[in-house]
Amino acid sequence: EKGGHDWFMLKEIAEQPQAVADTLLGRLSDEGDLVLDEMRLSDQELRDIDKVFVVSCGTSYHAGLIAKYAIEHWTRIPVEVEVASEFRYRDPVLDRSTLVVVISQSGETMDTLMALRHAKEQKARVLAICNVNGSTIPRESDAVLYTHAGPEIAVASTKSFLAQIVACYLVGLILAQVRGIKYADEVAVIVRELQKLPEAVAQVLTQMEPVRELGRSMADAGTILFLGRHVGFPVALEGALKLKELAYIHAEGFAAGELKHGPIAVIDEGTPVVVIAPSPRGRSLLHGKVVSNIQEVRARGARTIVIAEEGDEDVVPYADHLIRVPRTPTLLAPVVTTVPLQVLACEIAATRGYDVDQPRNLAKSVTVE
Ligand code: F6R
Protein backbone atom coordinates (compact mmCIF):
# COMPACT_ATOMS: atom_id res chain seq x y z
CA GLU A 1 0.00 0.00 0.00
CA LYS A 2 3.02 2.26 0.49
CA GLY A 3 4.10 1.42 -3.05
CA GLY A 4 7.50 0.11 -1.97
CA HIS A 5 8.26 3.12 0.24
CA ASP A 6 9.06 2.91 3.95
CA TRP A 7 6.48 5.55 4.79
CA PHE A 8 3.30 7.00 3.33
CA MET A 9 5.05 10.33 3.55
CA LEU A 10 7.78 9.15 1.17
CA LYS A 11 5.16 7.73 -1.18
CA GLU A 12 3.30 11.05 -1.13
CA ILE A 13 6.52 13.01 -1.71
CA ALA A 14 7.14 10.79 -4.73
CA GLU A 15 3.61 11.46 -6.01
CA GLN A 16 4.19 15.21 -6.18
CA PRO A 17 4.85 15.49 -9.92
CA GLN A 18 1.43 13.86 -10.43
CA ALA A 19 -0.24 16.06 -7.82
CA VAL A 20 1.06 19.18 -9.56
CA ALA A 21 0.13 17.89 -13.04
CA ASP A 22 -3.36 16.84 -11.95
CA THR A 23 -4.00 20.21 -10.29
CA LEU A 24 -3.17 21.93 -13.58
CA LEU A 25 -5.01 19.40 -15.75
CA GLY A 26 -7.79 20.85 -17.88
CA ARG A 27 -7.39 24.30 -16.35
CA LEU A 28 -5.21 25.91 -19.01
CA SER A 29 -6.25 26.01 -22.65
CA ASP A 30 -3.74 25.61 -25.49
CA GLU A 31 -3.94 29.37 -25.98
CA GLY A 32 -2.84 29.94 -22.38
CA ASP A 33 -6.31 30.90 -21.14
CA LEU A 34 -7.41 29.78 -17.72
CA VAL A 35 -10.55 27.69 -17.70
CA LEU A 36 -11.90 27.69 -14.17
CA ASP A 37 -15.67 27.63 -14.72
CA GLU A 38 -15.90 25.02 -11.96
CA MET A 39 -15.01 27.81 -9.54
CA ARG A 40 -18.56 29.25 -9.79
CA LEU A 41 -17.54 32.94 -9.78
CA SER A 42 -18.41 35.05 -12.82
CA ASP A 43 -15.81 37.23 -14.54
CA GLN A 44 -17.71 40.26 -13.30
CA GLU A 45 -17.57 39.04 -9.71
CA LEU A 46 -13.85 38.44 -10.10
CA ARG A 47 -13.33 41.90 -11.62
CA ASP A 48 -15.11 43.53 -8.67
CA ILE A 49 -12.60 42.19 -6.17
CA ASP A 50 -10.37 44.91 -4.79
CA LYS A 51 -8.76 43.08 -1.87
CA VAL A 52 -7.82 39.50 -1.09
CA PHE A 53 -7.34 37.72 2.24
CA VAL A 54 -5.82 34.28 2.38
CA VAL A 55 -6.74 32.44 5.56
CA SER A 56 -5.52 28.98 6.62
CA CYS A 57 -3.45 27.04 9.18
CA GLY A 58 -0.08 25.33 9.37
CA THR A 59 1.28 24.18 6.06
CA SER A 60 -1.78 25.58 4.28
CA TYR A 61 -0.91 28.97 5.78
CA HIS A 62 2.53 28.73 4.20
CA ALA A 63 0.87 28.17 0.81
CA GLY A 64 -1.07 31.37 1.48
CA LEU A 65 2.11 33.32 2.15
CA ILE A 66 3.45 32.23 -1.23
CA ALA A 67 0.15 33.22 -2.86
CA LYS A 68 0.59 36.78 -1.65
CA TYR A 69 3.83 37.30 -3.57
CA ALA A 70 2.34 35.91 -6.77
CA ILE A 71 -1.14 37.47 -6.65
CA GLU A 72 0.05 40.96 -5.75
CA HIS A 73 2.76 40.88 -8.38
CA TRP A 74 0.53 39.68 -11.20
CA THR A 75 -2.64 41.59 -10.38
CA ARG A 76 -1.65 44.58 -8.18
CA ILE A 77 -4.57 43.64 -5.89
CA PRO A 78 -3.54 43.92 -2.21
CA VAL A 79 -3.35 40.54 -0.46
CA GLU A 80 -3.24 39.87 3.27
CA VAL A 81 -2.42 36.45 4.68
CA GLU A 82 -3.40 35.36 8.13
CA VAL A 83 -3.62 32.25 10.26
CA ALA A 84 -7.27 31.32 10.63
CA SER A 85 -7.18 31.21 14.43
CA GLU A 86 -6.31 34.92 14.54
CA PHE A 87 -8.33 36.20 11.61
CA ARG A 88 -11.84 36.45 12.91
CA TYR A 89 -10.98 37.59 16.40
CA ARG A 90 -9.49 40.87 15.30
CA ASP A 91 -12.49 42.13 13.33
CA PRO A 92 -10.87 42.28 9.89
CA VAL A 93 -12.17 44.81 7.35
CA LEU A 94 -14.28 42.82 4.90
CA ASP A 95 -17.00 43.68 2.39
CA ARG A 96 -18.64 42.48 -0.82
CA SER A 97 -15.60 43.27 -2.92
CA THR A 98 -13.24 41.29 -0.67
CA LEU A 99 -12.23 37.81 -1.75
CA VAL A 100 -11.36 35.52 1.13
CA VAL A 101 -9.41 32.49 -0.05
CA VAL A 102 -9.49 29.70 2.53
CA ILE A 103 -6.97 26.92 2.02
CA SER A 104 -7.45 23.51 3.61
CA GLN A 105 -6.26 20.07 2.59
CA SER A 106 -8.86 18.28 4.70
CA GLY A 107 -11.68 20.77 4.32
CA GLU A 108 -12.56 20.11 7.97
CA THR A 109 -10.17 22.33 9.94
CA MET A 110 -12.29 24.08 12.58
CA ASP A 111 -10.19 27.27 12.77
CA THR A 112 -10.46 27.72 9.02
CA LEU A 113 -14.16 26.88 8.97
CA MET A 114 -14.91 29.46 11.66
CA ALA A 115 -12.91 32.08 9.74
CA LEU A 116 -14.88 31.24 6.60
CA ARG A 117 -18.20 31.65 8.42
CA HIS A 118 -17.07 35.00 9.78
CA ALA A 119 -16.06 36.17 6.30
CA LYS A 120 -19.45 35.16 4.92
CA GLU A 121 -21.29 36.97 7.69
CA GLN A 122 -19.37 40.09 6.68
CA LYS A 123 -20.54 39.57 3.06
CA ALA A 124 -17.12 38.76 1.66
CA ARG A 125 -16.89 36.24 -1.19
CA VAL A 126 -15.24 33.02 -0.08
CA LEU A 127 -13.21 30.78 -2.36
CA ALA A 128 -11.99 27.47 -0.96
CA ILE A 129 -8.84 25.70 -2.14
CA CYS A 130 -9.36 22.18 -0.88
CA ASN A 131 -8.20 18.62 -1.47
CA VAL A 132 -11.17 16.64 -0.17
CA ASN A 133 -14.22 16.63 -2.39
CA GLY A 134 -17.47 17.57 -0.69
CA SER A 135 -15.89 18.33 2.69
CA THR A 136 -17.36 21.04 4.93
CA ILE A 137 -15.17 23.99 3.91
CA PRO A 138 -15.88 23.81 0.16
CA ARG A 139 -19.56 23.08 0.86
CA GLU A 140 -19.92 26.30 2.84
CA SER A 141 -17.85 28.44 0.44
CA ASP A 142 -19.20 30.49 -2.49
CA ALA A 143 -16.63 28.98 -4.82
CA VAL A 144 -14.14 26.15 -4.85
CA LEU A 145 -10.96 25.22 -6.64
CA TYR A 146 -10.01 21.65 -5.81
CA THR A 147 -6.41 20.55 -5.55
CA HIS A 148 -6.09 17.16 -7.19
CA ALA A 149 -3.34 15.76 -4.99
CA GLY A 150 -5.22 12.53 -4.25
CA PRO A 151 -5.70 11.14 -0.73
CA GLU A 152 -2.98 12.16 1.72
CA ILE A 153 -2.49 9.65 4.52
CA ALA A 154 0.69 10.79 6.30
CA VAL A 155 -0.17 13.39 8.93
CA ALA A 156 2.41 15.83 7.54
CA SER A 157 1.25 17.61 4.40
CA THR A 158 3.50 17.21 1.37
CA LYS A 159 1.83 16.69 -1.99
CA SER A 160 -1.23 18.67 -0.95
CA PHE A 161 1.06 21.62 -0.16
CA LEU A 162 2.56 21.64 -3.65
CA ALA A 163 -0.92 21.32 -5.14
CA GLN A 164 -2.14 24.24 -2.97
CA ILE A 165 0.67 26.46 -4.21
CA VAL A 166 -0.26 25.62 -7.80
CA ALA A 167 -3.94 26.36 -7.10
CA CYS A 168 -2.92 29.73 -5.62
CA TYR A 169 -1.04 30.55 -8.82
CA LEU A 170 -4.20 29.71 -10.79
CA VAL A 171 -6.21 32.09 -8.61
CA GLY A 172 -3.67 34.85 -9.26
CA LEU A 173 -3.68 34.17 -12.97
CA ILE A 174 -7.47 34.15 -13.30
CA LEU A 175 -7.65 37.46 -11.44
CA ALA A 176 -5.04 38.81 -13.87
CA GLN A 177 -6.89 37.36 -16.86
CA VAL A 178 -10.27 38.94 -16.06
CA ARG A 179 -8.48 42.26 -15.65
CA GLY A 180 -7.01 41.92 -19.13
CA ILE A 181 -3.44 41.52 -17.85
CA LYS A 182 -3.22 38.13 -19.46
CA TYR A 183 -1.15 39.19 -22.43
CA ALA A 184 1.41 40.92 -20.30
CA ASP A 185 4.62 39.10 -21.17
CA GLU A 186 5.32 37.85 -17.73
CA VAL A 187 1.92 36.25 -17.19
CA ALA A 188 2.16 34.48 -20.56
CA VAL A 189 5.58 33.13 -19.60
CA ILE A 190 4.27 31.94 -16.23
CA VAL A 191 1.44 30.02 -17.88
CA ARG A 192 4.01 28.18 -20.01
CA GLU A 193 6.39 27.61 -17.13
CA LEU A 194 3.65 26.18 -14.91
CA GLN A 195 3.33 23.25 -17.28
CA LYS A 196 7.01 22.43 -16.80
CA LEU A 197 6.70 22.12 -13.02
CA PRO A 198 5.77 18.40 -12.86
CA GLU A 199 8.94 17.58 -14.78
CA ALA A 200 11.01 19.90 -12.57
CA VAL A 201 9.69 18.26 -9.40
CA ALA A 202 10.41 14.82 -10.89
CA GLN A 203 13.96 15.94 -11.58
CA VAL A 204 14.45 17.09 -7.97
CA LEU A 205 13.20 13.71 -6.77
CA THR A 206 15.91 11.87 -8.72
CA GLN A 207 18.55 13.70 -6.67
CA MET A 208 17.35 12.96 -3.14
CA GLU A 209 19.84 10.26 -2.05
CA PRO A 210 22.50 12.80 -0.95
CA VAL A 211 19.77 14.70 0.90
CA ARG A 212 18.82 11.57 2.82
CA GLU A 213 22.45 10.99 3.66
CA LEU A 214 22.72 14.58 4.85
CA GLY A 215 19.58 14.05 6.97
CA ARG A 216 21.17 11.06 8.67
CA SER A 217 24.16 13.24 9.62
CA MET A 218 21.88 15.92 11.12
CA ALA A 219 19.82 13.69 13.40
CA ASP A 220 21.56 14.84 16.60
CA ALA A 221 21.19 18.57 16.02
CA GLY A 222 19.73 20.51 18.94
CA THR A 223 18.28 23.25 16.75
CA ILE A 224 18.09 23.80 13.00
CA LEU A 225 17.48 27.17 11.38
CA PHE A 226 15.96 27.87 7.98
CA LEU A 227 16.51 31.11 6.09
CA GLY A 228 14.91 32.52 2.98
CA ARG A 229 13.84 35.77 1.41
CA HIS A 230 10.84 36.63 -0.77
CA VAL A 231 9.07 33.35 -1.66
CA GLY A 232 11.98 31.52 -0.04
CA PHE A 233 10.79 32.84 3.33
CA PRO A 234 7.54 30.80 3.46
CA VAL A 235 9.55 27.82 2.21
CA ALA A 236 11.90 28.30 5.18
CA LEU A 237 8.88 28.37 7.52
CA GLU A 238 7.58 25.18 5.95
CA GLY A 239 10.98 23.45 6.26
CA ALA A 240 11.08 24.33 9.96
CA LEU A 241 7.49 23.17 10.54
CA LYS A 242 8.12 19.80 8.89
CA LEU A 243 11.19 19.29 11.04
CA LYS A 244 9.45 20.21 14.28
CA GLU A 245 6.42 18.05 13.67
CA LEU A 246 8.29 14.96 12.47
CA ALA A 247 11.69 14.99 14.17
CA TYR A 248 10.74 16.90 17.37
CA ILE A 249 13.81 19.07 16.92
CA HIS A 250 13.58 22.76 17.63
CA ALA A 251 13.58 24.59 14.32
CA GLU A 252 12.78 28.10 13.19
CA GLY A 253 12.32 29.73 9.83
CA PHE A 254 13.42 33.33 9.36
CA ALA A 255 13.35 35.98 6.72
CA ALA A 256 17.09 36.06 6.05
CA GLY A 257 17.13 39.85 6.34
CA GLU A 258 15.89 39.59 9.92
CA LEU A 259 18.91 37.60 10.97
CA LYS A 260 20.95 40.61 12.01
CA HIS A 261 18.03 41.92 14.06
CA GLY A 262 18.38 39.16 16.62
CA PRO A 263 18.30 35.52 15.55
CA ILE A 264 21.95 35.46 14.50
CA ALA A 265 22.80 35.42 18.21
CA VAL A 266 21.64 31.80 18.55
CA ILE A 267 24.10 30.53 15.96
CA ASP A 268 26.85 28.48 17.48
CA GLU A 269 29.66 26.23 16.30
CA GLY A 270 28.07 23.55 14.13
CA THR A 271 24.45 24.85 14.17
CA PRO A 272 22.90 23.62 10.92
CA VAL A 273 21.45 26.50 8.89
CA VAL A 274 19.43 25.65 5.80
CA VAL A 275 19.28 28.49 3.28
CA ILE A 276 16.86 28.71 0.37
CA ALA A 277 18.76 30.81 -2.16
CA PRO A 278 16.72 32.98 -4.55
CA SER A 279 17.11 32.88 -8.35
CA PRO A 280 20.71 33.68 -9.27
CA ARG A 281 22.28 37.04 -9.85
CA GLY A 282 20.71 38.92 -12.74
CA ARG A 283 17.26 37.42 -12.11
CA SER A 284 16.78 38.33 -8.46
CA LEU A 285 17.86 41.49 -6.69
CA LEU A 286 18.04 39.50 -3.49
CA HIS A 287 20.60 36.93 -4.48
CA GLY A 288 23.66 38.91 -3.41
CA LYS A 289 22.01 39.72 -0.10
CA VAL A 290 21.35 36.06 0.63
CA VAL A 291 24.94 35.16 -0.29
CA SER A 292 26.03 37.72 2.34
CA ASN A 293 23.67 36.15 4.87
CA ILE A 294 25.21 32.73 4.21
CA GLN A 295 28.69 34.21 4.75
CA GLU A 296 27.56 35.85 8.00
CA VAL A 297 26.20 32.66 9.55
CA ARG A 298 29.18 30.65 8.40
CA ALA A 299 31.57 33.14 9.96
CA ARG A 300 29.83 32.37 13.26
CA GLY A 301 30.37 28.65 12.94
CA ALA A 302 27.15 27.52 11.22
CA ARG A 303 27.12 24.42 9.04
CA THR A 304 25.45 25.74 5.89
CA ILE A 305 23.09 23.71 3.74
CA VAL A 306 22.17 25.69 0.65
CA ILE A 307 19.36 24.98 -1.79
CA ALA A 308 20.20 26.77 -5.03
CA GLU A 309 19.34 26.73 -8.69
CA GLU A 310 21.52 24.80 -11.12
CA GLY A 311 24.23 27.07 -12.47
CA ASP A 312 24.26 29.33 -9.41
CA GLU A 313 27.99 29.39 -8.75
CA ASP A 314 28.02 32.34 -6.34
CA VAL A 315 26.82 30.20 -3.43
CA VAL A 316 29.37 27.41 -3.94
CA PRO A 317 32.22 28.81 -1.77
CA TYR A 318 29.93 29.22 1.24
CA ALA A 319 27.88 26.02 1.11
CA ASP A 320 29.03 23.11 3.27
CA HIS A 321 26.29 21.14 1.51
CA LEU A 322 24.71 22.17 -1.75
CA ILE A 323 21.34 20.91 -2.97
CA ARG A 324 20.55 21.76 -6.59
CA VAL A 325 17.09 22.45 -8.02
CA PRO A 326 16.15 23.11 -11.67
CA ARG A 327 15.69 26.63 -12.98
CA THR A 328 12.18 28.09 -12.58
CA PRO A 329 10.81 31.64 -12.58
CA THR A 330 11.30 33.14 -9.11
CA LEU A 331 7.64 33.03 -8.11
CA LEU A 332 7.31 29.35 -9.02
CA ALA A 333 10.47 28.25 -7.19
CA PRO A 334 8.72 27.10 -3.95
CA VAL A 335 7.28 24.14 -5.87
CA VAL A 336 10.80 22.77 -6.32
CA THR A 337 12.70 24.15 -3.31
CA THR A 338 10.24 22.67 -0.79
CA VAL A 339 10.86 19.09 -1.89
CA PRO A 340 14.37 18.61 -0.41
CA LEU A 341 13.15 20.06 2.90
CA GLN A 342 10.39 17.42 3.09
CA VAL A 343 12.89 14.65 2.39
CA LEU A 344 15.32 16.07 4.94
CA ALA A 345 12.71 16.21 7.73
CA CYS A 346 11.50 12.71 6.90
CA GLU A 347 14.99 11.24 6.99
CA ILE A 348 15.98 13.00 10.21
CA ALA A 349 12.80 11.75 11.91
CA ALA A 350 13.30 8.19 10.65
CA THR A 351 16.95 8.21 11.78
CA ARG A 352 15.81 9.28 15.24
CA GLY A 353 13.49 6.28 15.24
CA TYR A 354 10.16 8.08 15.06
CA ASP A 355 6.98 7.13 13.26
CA VAL A 356 7.12 9.55 10.35
CA ASP A 357 3.50 9.02 9.30
CA GLN A 358 2.01 9.42 12.78
CA PRO A 359 3.94 12.04 14.71
CA ARG A 360 3.14 12.42 18.39
CA ASN A 361 0.44 14.88 19.49
CA LEU A 362 -0.80 15.53 15.94
CA ALA A 363 -3.90 14.58 13.96
CA LYS A 364 -4.49 14.70 10.22
CA SER A 365 -7.48 16.91 10.56
CA VAL A 366 -7.91 19.33 13.44
CA THR A 367 -11.62 19.62 14.12
CA VAL A 368 -11.44 21.65 17.32
CA GLU A 369 -10.68 25.36 17.65
C1 F6R B 1 1.57 20.19 8.58
C2 F6R B 1 0.14 19.95 8.65
C3 F6R B 1 -0.75 20.94 9.35
C4 F6R B 1 -1.93 21.29 8.43
C5 F6R B 1 -2.92 22.21 9.15
C6 F6R B 1 -4.05 22.63 8.23
O1 F6R B 1 2.23 19.18 7.89
O2 F6R B 1 -0.32 18.96 8.14
O3 F6R B 1 -0.04 22.09 9.70
O4 F6R B 1 -1.41 21.91 7.28
O5 F6R B 1 -3.44 21.55 10.27
O6 F6R B 1 -4.76 21.52 7.77
P1 F6R B 1 -5.75 21.64 6.55
O7 F6R B 1 -4.95 22.01 5.35
O8 F6R B 1 -6.38 20.28 6.42
O9 F6R B 1 -6.74 22.70 6.90
TrEMBL record:
Keywords: Aminotransferase, Cytoplasm, Glutamine amidotransferase, Repeat, Transferase. Its main location: cytoplasm. Homodimer. GO terms for molecular function: carbohydrate derivative binding; glutamine-fructose-6-phosphate transaminase (isomerizing) activity. GO terms for cellular component: cytosol. Catalyzes the first step in hexosamine metabolism, converting fructose-6P into glucosamine-6P using glutamine as a nitrogen source. The gene is glmS. Residues 42-181, 214-359 form the SIS domain. Signal peptide: none annotated. This is Glutamine--fructose-6-phosphate aminotransferase [isomerizing]. Its EC number is 2.6.1.16. It is found in: Cytoplasm. It is an enzyme of class 2 (transferase). The keyword Iron-sulfur does not apply. One of its GO terms (biological process) is protein N-linked glycosylation. It catalyses: D-fructose 6-phosphate + L-glutamine = D-glucosamine 6-phosphate + L-glutamate.
